Amino acid sequence: MRDEQATGAAITFDRVEKSFAQKGGAPVMALSDCTLTVEPGAITGIIGRSGAGKSTLLRMVNGLERPTGGRVLVGGRDVGAADGAELREIRREVGMIFQHFNLLASRTVFGNVALPLEIAGRPASEIRPRVADLIARVGLEALADRYPAELSGGQKQRVGIARALATGPKVLLSDEATSALDPETTQTVLRLLADINRDLGLTILLITHEMGVLRDIATHMAVIDGGRIVEAGPTYDIFVRPQHPTTRSFLSGVTGVTLPAFVASRLRPAPPEGPSQEVIRITFAGRHATDPMLARLTGELGIAVNILAGAIEEIGPHPFGNLLVSVETGRGAEARAYLERHQLLTEVLGYVG
Amino acid sequence: MWANLTPLLLEATLQTLYMVAVSGVLGTAFGLPLGVFLATSQRGELLSAPLVNKVLGLVVNATRSVPFIILVVAIIPFTRALAGTSIGTTAAIVPLTVAAIPFIARLVENAIREVDSGLIEAARAMGATPFQIIRKVLIPEALPGIALGLTLALVSLIGYSAMVGAVGGEGLGDLGIRYGYQRFMPEVMAAVVVILIVLVQLVQSVGEGIARAVDRRAPRNRGR
């Protein structure tokens, strides 16, 4: 199994297209030309606004949706072309968890986790110990005979995760699995997913509209906007050097670095007449993230720096900081050149008079 | 006088129970699968068969629009073919069953449609066949609704069974008409009405009890 995974991508989206027929009109393109490779053993997140097409893309991995163009390969098999028994076999190798958990109200925790095994036709003697293991793995031993209505949201999602792992899948799909949970519960569920990824070598593909989820567990990410993948790569690189405006707008929500209102309201795209300040975003990454660069800027070049906002955080083990500063417009270029020389990234946001 | 009437009332009650029980069981045996099919066979659903769905829907509606007393008379040839005779208590089971099937089918269909479509999606994602989804997800999840639907159907069957005197079926309704009405014995009529009320209450309570017992959608007080 390891060899098979090492030879190629876990999931490949190859120029995937999805159009929906519309009554009395041209078909609507939900996805166009989506190409994305999901590395085996990685946690890959797809972020997009609601309606961007991320859910449709995810559902193609287990054939709940079929592409109208292009191919979706899972473990080398073309899901879109699979049918009947073959499709059901692929689905047993792809677990899925849902925003609203989708647990059977009529079954206990044990019964819910056992369901995929019953469906796969496993004998009861095999199901019993396997389900007990799975329930222990997600820390719900004490609740095995409870019904979903008696559980909290976080506990329900743990049941969902145990159920998704029941048939020993190679891939786990997560459809906004933490969107219905409070922030604390979200963290515990994300930690559980990260543990499972590490312990079982499971490939996880998740969709979310929260950049924080990607920051916390995704090693790779893709941004989808208007049915197209506009940016993809390692999460750290995208957080540090976002290219697309959509990515930036998602990031501004999570890095906690936005201009204070009194500056933002006066921000101009070009320097106004008279004395003015240039507003610059500085991104610290890698080993320079913790260097005292601003002090050196002032010390070595004598440029006064106003700090407007800033934060340092971590993506996995890597620290990364964002700082919004302003300097006298006449010396902006000089200051930026100095910072760039020391591997910091700068971006001019505008000018204030 | 009551000494003579008591055995009559007892016999009539048993006949009513016999007709309702047999037609209830047969009606469920045919109505349940029909209801499941109606609920899952529209275009794009699990057993997608839009044409068959439409035809069956029409047949169900047609049967349900015929007043029961007309149905009893209208299907006499069918009853004779099936039961060997068109009169009597056993023969009356045929029209009762014919009326029960589409009624139960619609009630089951409604109960199944109440099941969250997210559960169907989850089961499909597990690699379940349509038949597995019906057996392991839809029916168990719809069971509280199905139990209430069957209760309603049984209560209606008790009412219908009072009309089969028209074709020589016996039972409480027939007793009430023949003795209470035609022989001017209001006390018999009163006794029949009381027994019917008790029967309906009993069926209703038991049905609701079963529906509650299988309903796990709300948390229960476990006494902890």
Automatic annotation (TrEMBL), chain A:
<dbReference type="InterPro" id="IPR003593">
    <property type="entry name" value="AAA+_ATPase"/>
</dbReference>
<dbReference type="InterPro" id="IPR017871">
    <property type="entry name" value="ABC_transporter-like_CS"/>
</dbReference>
<feature type="domain" description="ABC transporter">
    <location>
        <begin position="11"/>
        <end position="251"/>
    </location>
</feature>
<keyword id="KW-1278">Translocase</keyword>
<dbReference type="InterPro" id="IPR027417">
    <property type="entry name" value="P-loop_NTPase"/>
</dbReference>
<dbReference type="InterPro" id="IPR050086">
    <property type="entry name" value="MetN_ABC_transporter-like"/>
</dbReference>
<keyword id="KW-0067">ATP-binding</keyword>
<dbReference type="InterPro" id="IPR041701">
    <property type="entry name" value="MetN_ABC"/>
</dbReference>
<protein>
    <submittedName>
        <fullName>D-methionine transport system ATP-binding protein</fullName>
    </submittedName>
</protein>
<keyword id="KW-0547">Nucleotide-binding</keyword>
<dbReference type="Pfam" id="PF09383">
    <property type="entry name" value="NIL"/>
</dbReference>
<dbReference type="Pfam" id="PF00005">
    <property type="entry name" value="ABC_tran"/>
</dbReference>
<dbReference type="GO" id="GO:0005524">
    <property type="term" value="F:ATP binding"/>
</dbReference>
<dbReference type="InterPro" id="IPR045865">
    <property type="entry name" value="ACT-like_dom_sf"/>
</dbReference>
<keyword id="KW-0029">Amino-acid transport</keyword>
<dbReference type="InterPro" id="IPR003439">
    <property type="entry name" value="ABC_transporter-like_ATP-bd"/>
</dbReference>
<keyword id="KW-0472">Membrane</keyword>
<dbReference type="InterPro" id="IPR018449">
    <property type="entry name" value="NIL_domain"/>
</dbReference>
<keyword id="KW-0813">Transport</keyword>
<keyword id="KW-1003">Cell membrane</keyword>
UniProtKB/TrEMBL annotation, chain B:
<protein>
    <submittedName>
        <fullName>D-methionine transport system permease protein</fullName>
    </submittedName>
</protein>
<feature type="transmembrane region" description="Helical">
    <location>
        <begin position="145"/>
        <end position="168"/>
    </location>
</feature>
<feature type="transmembrane region" description="Helical">
    <location>
        <begin position="51"/>
        <end position="76"/>
    </location>
</feature>
<keyword id="KW-0813">Transport</keyword>
<dbReference type="InterPro" id="IPR000515">
    <property type="entry name" value="MetI-like"/>
</dbReference>
<keyword id="KW-0472">Membrane</keyword>
<keyword id="KW-1003">Cell membrane</keyword>
<feature type="transmembrane region" description="Helical">
    <location>
        <begin position="188"/>
        <end position="214"/>
    </location>
</feature>
<feature type="transmembrane region" description="Helical">
    <location>
        <begin position="82"/>
        <end position="105"/>
    </location>
</feature>
<feature type="transmembrane region" description="Helical">
    <location>
        <begin position="17"/>
        <end position="39"/>
    </location>
</feature>
<dbReference type="InterPro" id="IPR035906">
    <property type="entry name" value="MetI-like_sf"/>
</dbReference>
<feature type="domain" description="ABC transmembrane type-1">
    <location>
        <begin position="13"/>
        <end position="207"/>
    </location>
</feature>
<dbReference type="InterPro" id="IPR051322">
    <property type="entry name" value="AA_ABC_Transporter_Permease"/>
</dbReference>
<comment type="similarity">
    <text>Belongs to the binding-protein-dependent transport system permease family.</text>
</comment>
<keyword id="KW-1133">Transmembrane helix</keyword>
<keyword id="KW-0812">Transmembrane</keyword>
<dbReference type="Pfam" id="PF00528">
    <property type="entry name" value="BPD_transp_1"/>
</dbReference>
